[in-house]
Amino acid sequence: MVKRTEKTDNGGVTRRDFIKGASLAGMAAAFGMPFDISLADDIVPKTRVVLIRDENVLDTEGNVNAEILSRMLDEAVSALFEAENSQEAWKKIIRPDDIVGIKSNEWGPLPTPAELEQAIKSRVMEAGVPEDKIAIDDRGVLYNDVFKNSTALINVRPFRTHHWSGVGSLLKNYIMFTPRPDDYHDNSCADLAKLWEKPMLKGKTRLNILVVLTPLFHGVGAHHFDSKYLWNYKGLLVGTDPVAVDATGLRIIEARREQYFGEYRPMKPPPHHIAYADIRHGLGVSDPNKIKLLKLGWQDGVLI
Q1: What are phi and psi of 15, to 5 degrees?
Q2: Angstrom distance (rounded) from CA 98 to CA 79
Q3: What does the pLDDT read at residue 152?
Q4: Are 163 and 221 in contact (CB under 8 A)?
């Protein structure tokens, strides 16, 4: 993952851009004029996150329509990289000589949909990577030869509340890359971003996909699951910055909790590992004012 002080395709900021924006803000203040940096994307570009939804991606029984889900992925990735089509977009992040690990999540009540795993694998193969250089795994990543030798990672998991970290996020999805996950549980998993500095992970994540088809917005206790706290949001959040994607997903879940409970109800424990990944570890952007959210598809009940 690149630092936010470098110019990147996903909306990073160079030192020169920062100084330029700060200078203009200072000049505006000196002359008593308002300056809204959020309106100056050309000065301080924002981190891009794509939210795509389709009201037909799930049937009445909650089954996934693989064709629609695959199309959602294609449209989201194309929009994220401002590409003509998904093939062009994937070639911006995957090379034919890459070894690609697709880090999924197999938590029983709400796993990464197999249809999405296969759609990602197909796109990686279309980018020129041989099938034997691709693996999909979760709890076995430390012992998987593809992951041990990987040059590129795709991070994909469903979003849900979590007993130790507040939410099961993209940041937390990499906890299986340590043989001692308990080492990261202190203070509600505040420093999960440290995981991303491990040699097996550092700088390898090319794409982050937060599955918000049926997010779990409330839970009590370890491994708690109650289907009444799921809702058919029918979406995907996609970005190159895991912090920005998680922060956007968190805003959606918080809005749903307030809608459902009729009041603001803070999560317990607090999911502060997302903000700490930004302000303490510099891994990405958590401030919504610095995130450019592109909303595609079905907008009813978008909550953000």
Answers
A1: -60, -40
A2: 23
A3: 98
A4: yes
Tokens of 5: 């002080």
Considering only CA atoms, which of 238, 193, 92 is closest in space to residue 152? 92
Residue 89 to residue 78: CA distance in whole angstroms: 5
Distance CA 7, CA 89 (A): 19
Ramachandran sector of residue 11 (left: φ over 0; alpha: ψ -120 to 50; beta: rest): left
pLDDT < 70 positions in the chain: 1-44
Q: Output the pLDDT for position 196.
A: 97
Nearest to 216 by CA among 204, 205, 226: 226
Give residue 18's pLDDT. 36
The pLDDT, as a whole number, for residue 27 is 40
The Cα–Cα gap between 106 and 283 comes to: 25
Burial per residue of 259-269, b for 16 or more beta-carbon CB atoms within 10 angstroms, e otherwise: eeeeeeeebeb
Amino acid present at 142: L
203-236 per-position pLDDT tens digit:
999 999 999 999 999 988 777 889 999 999 999 9
Return all residues near 50 (Cβ < 8 A) that are at least 6 apart. Answer: 76, 77, 79, 80, 237, 238, 239, 293, 294, 296
Place of tokens 């996909």: 209
The two structure tokens encoding residue 243 = 């912090």
Measured between alpha carbons, how far is residue 9 from residues 4, 102, 119, 258 in Å? 11, 21, 23, 34
On the question of a cis peptide bond just before residue 269, with omega within 30 degrees of 0, the verdict is yes
152-162 and 166-168 as β-strands: parallel, antiparallel, unpaired? Answer: antiparallel
Kindly report the CA angle at 259 between 188 and 72, in degrees rounded to 5? 80
pLDDT of residue 75: 98
| pTM of the model as a whole | 0.86
Tokens of 66: 């693989």
| Confidence (pLDDT) at 150 | 98
What's the rounded Cα separation, in Å, for the pair 138 and 176? 7
